[in-house]
Amino acid sequence: MDKNLEMKLNAKLIVNMAMLIALSIILKRFMTIPLPIGILNFGGFPIIFSGLFLGPYAGAITGILSDITGYMIFPRGPYIPIFTITSMLIGLLPPLIITLIKKRHNVSFLSILIAIMIPQSLTKLFIIPLTMQFCFGIPFFISFTKCLITELIHIPIYSFFSYSILKKIPDSYLKIEK
Q1: C-alpha span between 32 and 133 (Å, rounded)
Q2: What CATH number is attached to the domain comprising 87?
Q3: What average pLDDT does the segment 118-139 reach?
């Protein structure tokens, strides 16, 4: 296994993941902003941040557990596994994309922006609208438009906060350029 991607389970990692899972559930279920075209919530940020801060595997686990736990506590309709898979991808892909773009050291804001934009676009602009059409009959274009508007807000905010917080954390998975 690649040493850069290796995840060692320890108490600190588990506590950090648990905090980010709880924060994701709170932000997604309670801290929402209604917009004329839909609802804006920031529940994806802790999942993305967990991947960037703790590594891709921890990000994937955080995404899976936040979706399943959130559903178990606050079920809204039937359980649809594809939503759990998208949450997993949102935590897994950003640190992997950064590793492909450049090494994990001296990561720039632009690298983080690109690493967040690609999985958010894949999951929120394609997988989610396709799922909504297939499962609920909501036309793709309507879901796509709603998701596009919210992602135009989410992506820069997630990138800014991830970059700003990671600059202050010396022992994170990614090292931010000084």
Answers
A1: 23
A2: 1.10.1760.20
A3: 94
